[in-house]
Design a protein that fits this description.
- By secondary structure, this protein is α/β, with parallel strands linked by helices.
- It has one domain: Alpha-Beta Barrel (TIM Barrel), CATH 3.20.20.
- 43% of the residues lie in helices and 16% in strands.
- It is built from eleven helices and nine strands.
- It has a six-stranded parallel sheet with strand order 5-4-3-2-1-9. Strands 6-7-8 form a three-stranded parallel sheet.
- Helix 3 links the parallel strand 2 and strand 3.
- The chain starts with 5 loop residues before the first helix and ends with a helix.
């Protein structure tokens, strides 16, 4: 069983974690390979499509060099399904008492999300010290993360939501940010065209974001 510290190791693998929506599992390994060639070693496949678990399974089987996680985990059942599909970690857009409890004992590392000081405190009481800040930009962005650093020096974050290649550097410059999540790395039109070269280029730009 993973420890709560294992999620920090995963979040430190790359400065930017691609957040992707995949309709066709067959293209998932090619997408993962393009991101890997660009220098990114993690990918979050959101459970927003009917075949997302199939995409996770395909990446886990065909591209073992990238850490594939399940995003949009809304229930304990989602967490179990993600682990069974071969995900190496799981991420929620929020947190519930049931998920916070289940995440401590899950077979894969779990990252709950927060948007307030009270939610951080709830996570800390369960033993978590890494959190997703979501939605990062609407919730307060870098100013909010700087404010969290004072009362919660032990907390580390992966801000996601409303971040772009142009703004990601300001997040990564903060000492309490391990990485940032971004959906700009796999544009829908690039996926539709199987434009892996474009996605590789976007990944390379993101990989160079932390100076």
């Amino acid at each position: 069983m993973p420890s709560l510290a294992d999620i920090e190791r995963i979040l430190r693998l790359s400065p930017v974690m691609p957040v992707v929506v995949i309709e066709e599992p067959a293209i998932a390994p090619d997408l993962a390979r393009a991101l890997l060639r660009g220098g990114l070693r993690t990918i979050e496949v959101t459970l927003r499509t009917a075949r997302a678990l199939g995409a996770i399974e395909a990446i886990a089987h065909d591209v073992p060099d990238i850490a594939v996680g399940a995003g949009t985990v809304l229930s304990v059942e989602d967490l179990r399904a993600a682990a069974n599909a071969g995900a190496t970690f799981a991420i929620s857009p929020g947190a519930t008492p049931a998920l916070l409890e289940a995440g401590v004992h899950a077979p894969i590392p779990y990252l709950p999300a927060i948007a307030s000081a009270s939610e951080i405190m709830q996570g800390l009481t369960h033993g978590y010290h890494c959190f997703k800040l979501f939605p990062a930009a609407p919730a307060g962005g870098t100013a909010l993360l700087k404010a969290f650093a004072g009362p919660f020096p032990q907390a580390r974050f992966c801000p996601t939501g409303g971040i772009t290649q142009e703004t990601v550097g300001s997040y990564l410059a903060l000492s309490n940010v391990l990485c940032a999540g971004g959906s700009w790395l796999s544009p829908a039109e690039a996926l539709a065209a199987r434009d892996w070269r474009r996605i590789e280029t976007l990944a390379a730009q993101a990989a160079a974001s932390r100076t």
